[in-house]
Automatic annotation (TrEMBL):
Pfam name, any one: SBP_bac_5
All residue ranges annotated as the Solute-binding protein family domain in the record: 91-475
Presence of the UniProt keyword Nucleus in the record: no
Name of the protein described by the UniProt record: ABC transporter substrate-binding protein
GO cellular component: ATP-binding cassette (ABC) transporter complex; periplasmic space
Organism encoding this protein: Agromyces agglutinans
InterPro entries documented for this protein: Peptide/Ni-bd, SBP_5, SBP_5_dom
PANTHER family: ABC TRANSPORTER SUBSTRATE-BINDING PROTEIN, PERIPLASMIC BINDING COMPONENT OF ABC TRANSPORTER
Amino acid sequence: MKKGTVFIGLALAGSLALTGCTGGSGGSGGSASGGLSGEPATGGTLRVLQNADFSHLDPAQGFDGGVNNFYRLIYRTLTTQGAGEGAEGTEIVPDLATELGTPNEDNTVWTYTLKDDVFFEDGTPITSKDVKFGVERSLDPSISIGSPYAKIVLDIPEGYEGYYLSGPLDSIETPDDRTIVFHLNQPYADFDAVVGQAPFTPFPADADVTTTSIDQQPIASGPYRVTEYQRGSTLVLERNEHWDPETDEVRTAAPDSFEWTFGLDAATIDERMIAGQGEDANAIAGSVAPASIARIQTPEIQSRTVAGLQGCTTYMGLNTTKPGMDNVLVRQAINVAMDKEAVKDATGGSQLADIATTIMPPTVVGREEFDLYGTEDQTGDPEKAKELLAEAGYPDGFEFTLDIRNQPKMQAQAEAVQQSLAKAGITVNFNLIDTSTYYEVIGTLSQQHDAAITGWCPDWPTGATFLPPLFEGSQIFEKGNSNIAQLNDPAINERMAEIRLMTDVDEANAAWGALDEQIMELAPQVPLLYEKTVMVVGDNIAGAFSHAGFSGGIDYVSVGLKSAE
């Protein structure tokens, strides 16, 4: 691919989707594009009401749309996503780097130059050595549970276990304080997007940074620093006086401070946001609960509603290494038996979700439309499922354990799954996991059960960031594992390797789209929904829109207050 603009999201076309890249277009709200327009004033405190705490403050460990959105307030990387609705917000742009990277002829060596006048929160200049150290520490197996791309594409010797255990990584060179050179193990045309991932956050190479210290007390390179944190309760950010807006074309950073309140149940959050009284006029929150949809249809509430696609796929991953689940006929039976219409209704109906039939959502380039296990009205076919189970050797039915989040909407989805599969003689038992630790638990092989309801969003909108993390055998890790199906199919692995070597981007995108259907023939998951997000904000909020790169959430670096008084 030629050097230039890289996009990680798409302007939405038609229907909407779930947890990762969402576009602002197509939503209802304060503007035609689904956002609340108006430049935020400088100053004031913006409040965020949230059910669960962030997974990790350490960028080596967090890896979901919500926490990645938060990271941009306190951290910077060589590149980042833009700020804006639709494609404007999903363009990869320089951040700490002066420009996008310079690759060699075969895209295996990439060079970046850091800007002048970029500093940590204590005023220490950020150098190339700090970027190198940030990557090296992220490869420590005890914390390497976040974005996997550094592990996948960097030229890392076998047995390397991060800076603390193995020392410096020779494949990252720092010839001077402003230049950093990455050597890859394969051609990778999208490396500009990789260095925008959270594990590429710099930290002082000569400071007392340990494997656990950043999770407890981050070292800011962005416009804000953490001044108070009580896990599960509150998080306060105040301005980082050493952040220079002249070096940052992405972050508006209008509020003087941010204050999160965690541990609120969904009904309480919706009640407070709909009422919008007192300090809640200065607040934002996540998507409303299904039960509140009918209450936000008045003109006054619609005028402060932001909506958009989450840009992801909600799915039930099937662990292909577990007894029974290792039989493709059993997995196909589960797909056939699934009443997706019931799952959609449990999620809040058509205003909050569309039914999924493919692994990749409609926002991904090259995605093909197909439905291998479609049933009439998408309500499932119990009798066909029973036939498949009998053929697999389970004439009396099948039983498995499903990991789910301890959160009302997710439990409602799980109950719909349980009830629909019961009609086919499939018994589903629940294993409830706390929301804040859910991804970490299901991503740990020793703790994962037979299946899990989760979601996946593209880090940029191609199959390269969707199918390999979920289904490539080489990407099965003891911890931080996203291939929860634990699929390790030689033909699938070989095809992924072939696609990566394609230099024609259009050809590669089409190949990923075709591979989606090839994988679904093995039925390692049940695509359930392409979810949407609908958020009510306070009356004093400005610059709020659904960002396509962060699960459709409101872009933290752009939002602020109409009046800072």
